[in-house]
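Can't attach files on this board, so I'm pasting raw text. These are the components:
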Amino acid sequence: MSMSEVAKTIIAAKESKGLSWEEIGNAVGMSPVWTTSACMGMNSMPKETAESLCNLLGLDADICTALQKYPTKVWDQAVPTDPLVYRLYEIVGVYGETLKEVIQEKFGDGIMSAIDFSMEVEKEENPKGDRVVITMNGKFLPYKAW
Amino acid sequence: MSMSEVAKTIIAAKESKGLSWEEIGNAVGMSPVWTTSACMGMNSMPKETAESLCNLLGLDADICTALQKYPTKVWDQAVPTDPLVYRLYEIVGVYGETLKEVIQEKFGDGIMSAIDFSMEVEKEENPKGDRVVITMNGKFLPYKAW
Amino acid sequence: MSMSEVAKTIIAAKESKGLSWEEIGNAVGMSPVWTTSACMGMNSMPKETAESLCNLLGLDADICTALQKYPTKVWDQAVPTDPLVYRLYEIVGVYGETLKEVIQEKFGDGIMSAIDFSMEVEKEENPKGDRVVITMNGKFLPYKAW
Amino acid sequence: MSMSEVAKTIIAAKESKGLSWEEIGNAVGMSPVWTTSACMGMNSMPKETAESLCNLLGLDADICTALQKYPTKVWDQAVPTDPLVYRLYEIVGVYGETLKEVIQEKFGDGIMSAIDFSMEVEKEENPKGDRVVITMNGKFLPYKAW
Amino acid sequence: MSMSEVAKTIIAAKESKGLSWEEIGNAVGMSPVWTTSACMGMNSMPKETAESLCNLLGLDADICTALQKYPTKVWDQAVPTDPLVYRLYEIVGVYGETLKEVIQEKFGDGIMSAIDFSMEVEKEENPKGDRVVITMNGKFLPYKAW
Amino acid sequence: MSMSEVAKTIIAAKESKGLSWEEIGNAVGMSPVWTTSACMGMNSMPKETAESLCNLLGLDADICTALQKYPTKVWDQAVPTDPLVYRLYEIVGVYGETLKEVIQEKFGDGIMSAIDFSMEVEKEENPKGDRVVITMNGKFLPYKAW
Amino acid sequence: MSMSEVAKTIIAAKESKGLSWEEIGNAVGMSPVWTTSACMGMNSMPKETAESLCNLLGLDADICTALQKYPTKVWDQAVPTDPLVYRLYEIVGVYGETLKEVIQEKFGDGIMSAIDFSMEVEKEENPKGDRVVITMNGKFLPYKAW
Amino acid sequence: MSMSEVAKTIIAAKESKGLSWEEIGNAVGMSPVWTTSACMGMNSMPKETAESLCNLLGLDADICTALQKYPTKVWDQAVPTDPLVYRLYEIVGVYGETLKEVIQEKFGDGIMSAIDFSMEVEKEENPKGDRVVITMNGKFLPYKAW
Amino acid sequence: MSMSEVAKTIIAAKESKGLSWEEIGNAVGMSPVWTTSACMGMNSMPKETAESLCNLLGLDADICTALQKYPTKVWDQAVPTDPLVYRLYEIVGVYGETLKEVIQEKFGDGIMSAIDFSMEVEKEENPKGDRVVITMNGKFLPYKAW
Amino acid sequence: MSMSEVAKTIIAAKESKGLSWEEIGNAVGMSPVWTTSACMGMNSMPKETAESLCNLLGLDADICTALQKYPTKVWDQAVPTDPLVYRLYEIVGVYGETLKEVIQEKFGDGIMSAIDFSMEVEKEENPKGDRVVITMNGKFLPYKAW
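---
Top answer:
Structure tokens for the assembled complex are below.
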């Protein structure tokens, strides 16, 4: 069973149960963003989390097994076309050099890890139009000299 | 004078004055991230901000003029190679579909603006290794039907 | 059911009913361009519009559900090959810098939104050959400084 | 003298005279969009227009000659990165298939010419935020059978 | 039925009838090159021509309908690999700038239309080796100033 | 001296003498298309032709030498952007498979040479708009079996 | 039946008969390299050769027909990844300019044909390790001036 | 001094001395193909060979030093455009899979080295047109299992 | 049976037997890395090794045959996206020039073979976090002059 | 001063002093591989190391300053062409999936860091041809769930 079939099955179950990612994340005791990413096939779930999710949504054992696999993370579009995702790509293009300047000024030569990493999405209500707030939190890894 | 020459001149002045982006941003009354991005040629400065920055750093009038131009935002590498910037690109690739799911669940069909947008970088101290915290804040724009 | 199957089913129904996009758009109370784009899988329909369209064309409930999903907007060809679409791409290439100059002169530093956006197509009759008139209308979004 | 040097010289003269593209277009009796495109090196000016523009801006004879050359239209980025231009590219990607459906329904099998073509940009004032209105007008060219 | 299935069906019928494109074109009253291109899915046939072709080759009504559709012209290889087609691509690369010089010298600033366009292929017998003669005939379209 | 400098020098001399490619080709006893291509650096001139051209245009000996070199034929854009050249590329994309069918039907398995090859451009006057006629003539090369 | 299915069928038959390409080539009276290339779908077989091969390997009439078709030569990877094929690509990259110098010194301005062309592979035994000897033999085609 | 400047200097000296690559190779006791490749910056010369070549052509010590450097082998065009070099690329595309079949049948699983490798070019006179004969000779390297 | 089906079958058998690559490699008398690579379709197994592996895992004869084929080594992503594999790609990008300097200083002009090559992976325990140790061992191949 | 000028200056000094990277690394108390990478502009040197290196090689203060900057790591070729570097790229392509299997079996879901990373190159003498031994040592980073 491919991860995109797993994702489709989970989304169908989620819709028929009328649950949100927020609710699913809370039910399995993890962040909604991380839970979604694992269901999309971009993170592997610990056994208990996978079982909890499959119980919640009434999914078969093979889904449960698939969710525990270490996924191969592949994306097809070097430059994404969907407007929501492209805007994130554009932010990396426009602000990449700026972030390098600012992060390395604060921390020294190194990078923000994308592995020892978490991310949250919040809704900030605003009379001029609500705002999306994305918070990324990654361990700073200094370059090693040897 | 090209924007990359402007950037080099500003960085040289910043180093000879021993100032950080944090201090420069505070001095001109703007966020350090936005200030850096304007100096990198990725945002245009209002006249007073540009003047304030040039006074602070002792820069010529042509730098001041250049900082007020509406920049053409160009990046050469569709896939960035510098490890710090690549990790951000990787986050878009790995979590792009997840963010689409989560944002559209919270807000409906639409996107997070990269124009009506701000970003901060903070250092979170941690005994296991300090962490980089990036917060993005963009207006939600719903798709218009007509 | 994939959006390209949805699109094929709608086009087949449209042809068997002998309806034009103009007539379908009018019947569901939306612009023909927007209606077509939603049927092509590039915009999501509000529930009533989807129901109205499915009644008009005699389509099943699963088409109605699919039309309401928030679509992932993907196109395969970075440079389109179909001559009608390529000419639009060519206009962006030839006149992109010009539009940047003219729009930013009129509005200041910012962009025309492709989300808060509408578009119409008209036929202008002309003895030397009829002309296609495309009108795009997008909200101006000024860059935010912070 | 390369066309990008010509463009820079014209923009410098335009700024020192304090003229807008709107005013320059009106002064030489052409549309502001077309006038800008010719100054950007994407259209050739008739002799009188070039002379009129060079008189207005106080430019040398070699600029006048360069403006009359038939330009080779080249753009570097298959997918543009500047946000203003990218949004136009995105519109082609998202709505290309839709425009093909709608135009060919109205006109038959053929294309909108990008050569026998004109374009205007207007500002539509709106209390919720001004709007950019771009109107494209191109001759319909039916495919020839032989 | 996809256009590549239509093309395969036509070629199979053509082979079983022992007809050449020359004979088919003559029978339906059109040029062999154009007739072939329509069967390959790159041009749409008027109703009578499609019926005439289907009668000649004994093909079903769905082929007849498919031949009348306005095709979406797509090719996969930006640089073609088949040696016969590559040589044509090479001619565009080697002689493109030359053709621009020569055509614009004869006609002024503009292009040769690929829509109001026809093409013939002839065999020129020659004792040193027969020669392929391709004649392209396209309307000159002058750039419009506005 | 690079071939693009050679080309610029020749074009400047051609303009100051007020000669067309037609006249230059006739004066040196070669086709205008071939003569232009050699001046653009895409063919090597025999010694007498180069001398004749340099006498006609009053060019130095180093131009004469450069014209006799065997050129390395390089083009930068896999997909050309200039509209005149793109239309030729589009013809290869749209009609490539058709030409393969028609040529191989007439000649057997093989290709049209782009080396043992000539090309002419003519103007066909037409009240509905003049037409460009391009004639390509290349030796048929059958595939060798061994 | 696609050419890759034809190739698989031939290879399966070859293996079950225990024959080498060397033996098959000899049996049908052609070079092993050419015979292999025709079975891989990169050359068309004359009728007698195809029949002889199908008799030898016990293959059906539809294989025999398919082998006689004029193939469309397509390869997917602009830069091949298989190490054996990549080394050949590397040789073209490293020695391409050298071969141009040496061939054009010996023959004048022109190319080696890849159509009127043959190739052999031999094994040269050597105590330090056997060596692969590839011999290419192509007609020299001088550029034509006209 | 870059290798392309070294190559230009050597070619200028070669031309002023009226020597061929054949003669230069013979004079320095190496193959003409290898000698040319070293002068093009694609192989490093042993000290004595470089000195011998510089004496023969009257070149400075810095050329002699540059010829002994271990070159970084870079080519710009993943798919070459010059027709002579493209034909070699085409041969790799058309016959790559064939060569893999034939070489691995004769030698087992492995590759032909492009490092422990030599190549010769010969002219084969032929009344129907002379032929280019390229002979490649590379050590077979079997894959190692461990 | 394609190699990716072979790989899936082997992985399923490996999981149902509860064996690691380490144990499988030891059981068939080969390195775990090499054994894995052969199961992934990137190396061919000698007959005895393939039989031993199929006995161990209870696999059919067709798997055994497939494992002995000489594989065509193909990878789809010129730049890999999976974070584990990308880090290796990044190391080649960041340290490629460095390795060229250091290897050629130690060995002279030449390369490290990727064919006469082996690789091991070890776990180095470390209280600050375990470390991955990859050791590559490839024959040095000096460039041949001829 | 660009990093490639810094690198050239260092290499020139290194050659005139007759020092190897081995000797330079030992003199400054760092690994030869890391020292080389810092001189190539791919790592930043601590102040003392940079001073020690500049003293050793007799280099100016601006070189010393440049070596301490945090470099932007850029490489031009997504697929490298130099044979030594390509072989490393090929190893990533051929063995990437294998390394993912083997590393994740030993360590769980995660990656080998390319930042907290070191690398050594050794020469293994061997009568059949010396061997290059590259050892990579990177911290294992487990994916974080949150």
